[in-house]
């Protein structure tokens, strides 16, 4: 099934389901239909930035159904300037941060500032979310703190745009030591190092920008001619992204995310990230109810929430996102 059909199915199933409820009056049906049409037109804009080599391309490829982002194999900066990937109405901007040279830094800083100042038709920041990546294998985040302080924070505007900071290459924090390759997760020793890194990074960001952002760590994984290492905490990263995107736009992520369960299989056990993402998606679903009568809200949310709760119960046994997440959402409409 290609992506376009898949996304049409998701939304048309929702439409079908709601239009077939015979206790909904015509006016509410029309409003709901209108809301769905509005949701279909929405665009999500995601800016991913970070030093060359931090893993922007690898992260885009792991999360989204595109292999359009070239992964760097040499020390040459593969990503020279801002790249734009349009997947239906999900737009991903991939921009190098600071650290490629004085002239490059100026150019990249200007490019990012310009994007952050763009306003959409409704008067909101065009960029919904900025994801700042740090390379877990590096010790010096000075250039990234500077990017946050000098470019991102001053241009972020009226905070309807969110910032997430994530430390990629969690497997490389101790130069490759402490990674359990069989289980594809960090050992206790490495977890301690990772937690310390999160803490010191949070403190340094606060010192530099006075903003309190707690980074998460993950690994986008890698593939070379000898081996393939699966991502770690990718479901967690996805959950953080989805949660920080306006509810009425979250479906665009579901329509374009990768669906290979293996990619989402290993995560820390702090939360069931798949279920959390499903809940966020269900919230997104409820957006179709704006401006309908109270009676319609009751009827529709009753149907949706009841089916959704069943989906959550079933889902708690599932550790991976991906396909199961998508079918979980599809389930909501198919009953
Ligand atoms: N070990 C490890 N390598 C990674 C990870 N993510 C990316 N890489 C490698 O880091 C290098 C740079 O990645 P790339 O995605 O091109 O970074 P970009 O310049 O930010 O787009 C590539 O060789 C990737 O295979 C990871 O989580 N772990
Ligand atoms: Mg790249």
Word description of this protein:
There is one protein chain. The chain is of the alpha/beta class. The chain has helices at residues 3-19, 26-41, 56-63, 102-116, 142-155, 188-209, 234-243, 251-256, 273-286, 294-315, 323-334, and strands spanning 44-50, 83-87, 90-96, 129-135, 162-168, 179-180, 185-186, 216-217, 222-223, 228-229. The chain is built from 11 helices and 10 strands. Helix content is 47%, strand content 13%. The chain has a 6-stranded mixed sheet with strand order 2-3-1-4-5-8, sandwiched between helices. It has a two-stranded antiparallel ribbon with strand order 6-7. It is globular. The chain starts with a helix and ends with a helix. The chain has 2 domains: 1-41 and 269-335, no CATH class; 43-229, P-loop containing nucleotide triphosphate hydrolases (Rossmann fold), CATH 3.40.50. Bound molecules: guanosine-5'-diphosphate and magnesium ion (MG). Guanosine-5'-diphosphate is lined by residues 50, 52-58, 71-72, 78-79, 168-169, 171-172, 219-222.
From the 3D structure, determine the CATH topology of the largest domain. Answer: Rossmann fold
Averaged pLDDT, please?
82
Helix content: 40-55%
Q: What overall geometry do the principal axes of the alpha carbons give? A: globular
Helical run tally: 11
Write out key terms for the chains shown.
335 residues, binds guanosine-5'-diphosphate, Rossmann fold, binds magnesium ion, globular, two-stranded antiparallel ribbon, alpha/beta, 6-stranded mixed beta sheet, 11 helices, 2 domains, disordered N terminus
């Amino acid at each position: 099934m290609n992506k376009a059909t898949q996304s049409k199915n998701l939304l048309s199933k929702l439409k079908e389901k709601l239009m077939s409820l015979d206790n909904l009056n015509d006016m509410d049906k029309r409003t709901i239909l209108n809301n769905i049409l509005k949701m279909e037109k929405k665009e999500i804009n995601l800016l991913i930035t970070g030093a060359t080599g931090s893993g922007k391309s690898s992260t885009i490829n792991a999360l989204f159904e595109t292999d359009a982002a070239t992964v760097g194999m040499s020390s040459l900066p593969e990503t020279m300037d801002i790249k734009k990937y349009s997947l239906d109405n999900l737009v991903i901007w991939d921009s190098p941060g600071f650290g490629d040279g004085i002239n490059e830094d100026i150019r990249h800083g200007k490019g990012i500032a310009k994007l952050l100042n763009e306003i959409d038709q409704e008067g909101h920041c065009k960029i919904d979310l900025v994801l700042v990546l740090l390379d877990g294998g590096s010790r010096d985040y000075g250039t990234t703190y500077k990017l946050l302080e000098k470019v991102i924070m001053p241009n972020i505007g009226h905070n309807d745009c969110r910032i997430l900071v994530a430390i990629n290459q969690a497997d490389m924090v101790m130069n490759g030591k402490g990674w359990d390759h069989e289980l594809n997760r960090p050992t206790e020793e490495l977890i301690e190092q990772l937690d310390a890194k999160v803490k010191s990074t949070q403190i340094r960001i606060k010192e530099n920008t006075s903003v309190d952002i707690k980074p998460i760590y993950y690994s986008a994984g890698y593939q070379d001619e000898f081996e393939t290492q699966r991502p770690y905490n990718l479901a967690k990263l996805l959950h953080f992204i989805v949660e920080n995107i306006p509810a009425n736009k979250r479906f665009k992520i579901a329509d374009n995310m990768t669906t290979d369960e293996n990619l989402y299989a290993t995560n820390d056990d702090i939360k069931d990230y798949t279920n959390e993402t499903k809940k966020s998606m269900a919230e997104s679903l409820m957006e179709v109810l704006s401006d309908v009568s109270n009676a319609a809200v009751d009827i529709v949310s009753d149907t949706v929430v009841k089916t959704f709760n069943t989906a959550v119960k079933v889902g708690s046994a599932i550790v991976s996102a991906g396909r199961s997440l998508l079918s979980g959402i599809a389930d909501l409409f198919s009953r």
